[in-house]
Input
Amino acid sequence: MDSTTSKAAGGSSVGSLRPSLSETMGKWAFRLPIIFMVVFFALPMALTVVFSVFERTMFWMEPGFSLLAYENFFFSARLNNFLSSMYYSLIAVAICFVLGFPIAVFLRKSVPQVAQHRVVLLFILPFMVSEVIRVFALRPVLQRNGLVNETLMDLGLISEPITALLYSHTGVIIGEVMSFLPFIVFSGFLAMEAVPKYIFEVCDDLGAGTVRRFIDVILPLAAPGIFAGCVFIFVNGLGVALLPNILGGAGAVNAGLIATQAIAALDFPLAMAVSAIMMATLMGLLYIGHRLFDLTKILSPIN
Amino acid sequence: MNDYTNPWLHRLKWAYMLLIVVTLMSPVFYVMYISFNANGFGANEYDFTWEWYGLIFSDKLLMGALGWTMTLAVTTTVIGVPMALLAAKFYKRAQNKVLPVFLLLAPLFVAPDILGSALLVFFKNTNIVFVTLGDALGTGIFDGWFDLGFMTALIGLIIYTIPYSFVVILITMGRYNPEQTEAARSCGATAWQAFWDIEFPQIRAGVFSAASFTLILCFNEYTRTSLLKGGFDTFTTVLISQMLNTGMSEQSYAMSAFVSFVAIAIIGGIIITTMLRAEMLARQHREVAEPAAAN
Amino acid sequence: MTSPTGAVAPPAVEVRGLAKHYGAVVALTDVDVTIAAGEYFVLLGPSGGGKTTLLRTIGGFHRPTHGQVLLHGNDVGHLPPDKRPTAMVFQSYALFPHMNVLNNVGYGLKIAGLGKDERREKSAAALTMVGLDGYADRKPHELSGGQQQRVQLARAMVLERDILLLDEPLAALDAQLRKDMCLELKHLQHELGMTFIHVTHNQEEAMTVADRIALIADGELVEVGPAKEVYRAPRRRFTASFVGENNIFEGTVTNVEGAVVSVDVAGTNVAVDPDGQDVAVGAAVSLSIRSELVKLTTRGADIATDPGASLPATYKEAVYLGLTTSHLADIDGGGEVVSRVVEDLDEDVAQGTPVLAYWNREDLRLHTS
Output
């Protein structure tokens, strides 16, 4: 035992500098991702505001101050398109929530603990194929003589094919639901971790019905996660250009499409203005969410 | 499910859930179906064939794009997942958690086209600033750091995938008792040894899930890559240009289907092996527990 | 453990002016404590009092805000846990779940670079020592709580470090198991001659194992002393309230006369020996006496009581505790007195009966803080 003592005593003099050096190195290693995200994510997103007021040149932009891009956005059909895409995006959020959240509750409540994560894996399966293909494949399903119309006509439910399913706002909504539904299941699943399983038993014991239980207990506890999932769907509904591009008709133009069209037209300040407006929308939503229910709680079930 | 739930209602809920999954998967199934049709997309007749799968490898455009896609996806995974792991460790010990949570989850809430545009303009302007700076200093070493290309696409994809890896790793870390690290330190292990010997084996599943998810997301990503890629083509950008111009080639359908077959096989494999392993462990546990009961 | 050189060996642990702050929260203030080599030392105190913080600072898991930790005379403030001559046993069963019992115990040896056979041999010996022969191939989740703690103990002991830190090692075990493990710990420490520093909030546990006890509350070291002394003659009011079952009376000093201090407790004058403490007339003080040293008698019964060592009270109720029975009475003028007796009272005393609580003068203790 004396040998250990002397070894430890000897080690103390050798080790006096080393830990502090490796400690500082370690500290910076852990900060690396944060620094990366600040430089390549937070900074570019914040700079959209600056770039949006730059002067537009033939192929690029130059420093200056001009509100032309915002004028182009707010005093044109773009604003109407943006606002209506908000409206349709909200509808998609509502549909996703109604269809998807009960699945999250069901998973937590009625599926054995060990199987829960595997069932969630099922909802990752659609991501195995590119969104591009999934959205594109909706065309033959929804078109005039597509799968849905043929089936409905064969069943005798309709006599005329429904044309509004594709190249319309309905088409975009269907695309959004098909693309984003899994996210409400994921976020709902995470959010439901904040609802302990005994809650269901307590509610049964107290005789609270399904609706009461949902409104009084599940909703308040799971609210941060539900909110996060809904915001995710909402902003992606506004921002994914692919959906209106492939499934939408006239007037189905969302912020993402305005931005990419602006880039294709080499109007970079306009693209930046749209990005800045989207940022502002997102910040506003997150601020409201944070005021309503502490959003850092989203991750608290994990801690 | 407790003893009083109506079993039929329970089954109905399961059926509903599976119906949703199948509906979400229907475009995937449709692509698979087309990929075996000798007459291609939109044809009236359906003749089963393997032909398109054989042609994948002779399609120069597709194979070239595939090479880039794989390189990009693998690089993103190799850099992004360890970064997510570091970020998760940082988050765990951080006093103020708002900043890391915001920075690492916010990319989820920025739509692809918006992020792509913002990064595109940022990179181009940074390049201009760097060139000006280099001219002022009389050096060209800053030129072209952020020319659109592999690097910029890589950065875009890391930002896109890091939230997913972060959440997945954080969830697995939640089940880890940090006192084990302290116990290891107390046994004489350095911080790195404690992480590698004790913590990593327990969060390995999460890290590998994050890695496979990152690979798949990168492989299938279109918007950010196409905005930031510069000269080269990836799998999805080839598909889109085909769609918008001539229509997708049959090989592309076959390729997509092939990818989804592989991916589904992997996920299915994971589900089945974890189930088998759980079963095996439970059996071992019973076997060991019996002599213990005799003691 | 004596030093082979014959010189006076430095204490195993010496803590000087140690403080730990978490932002504005003060977990530990200005703690000085010296623990001799080969001692079984217990840090006792209520939860959240700072005893675990002290232990973890000694182990190197926290950096002190200021102050020093010396192990065998060497300042170890800058050293991480793995470079210190300490080993730790944690409250939660902090075993490595992906390793079997043998590998858990042998992990530290593996880190130290020992060969496989030597590791196996030493680990098996350590397992024998804690009574876990034949469990080497089990996984931690296949063990009971008590067994898991034994494995932790073996894992810490096999390293042959000379200071063992135990952070509430028995807190998660049930009462009977805790009692057994207490004795085992005591015997083990005796056999090995290691320095044990054991944190607990359970006074019975502390009394069973400790050579010396340090009381820690609100981040302060309240009192240090041999276990028996802390129990029999606590110096501080807090110690009296935390260790043993003491009656505590608050009062004001009315008269100081050499070795007799008169204290007014709820209107009655009580005499006490200040035991060398300085008190002034008018000072607010506390008096304490162990409940088994207080007797109750109905007032007017012909028992000779010391007028300076009794308080009039009103009988309230009896609480039957198995071996002993506690009789509770309200002191006339405020407060409560408990008398704990092994044999039952001869006759049941009705609630509301006027009684007299009395004791031997020398059993009462005066606390100025």
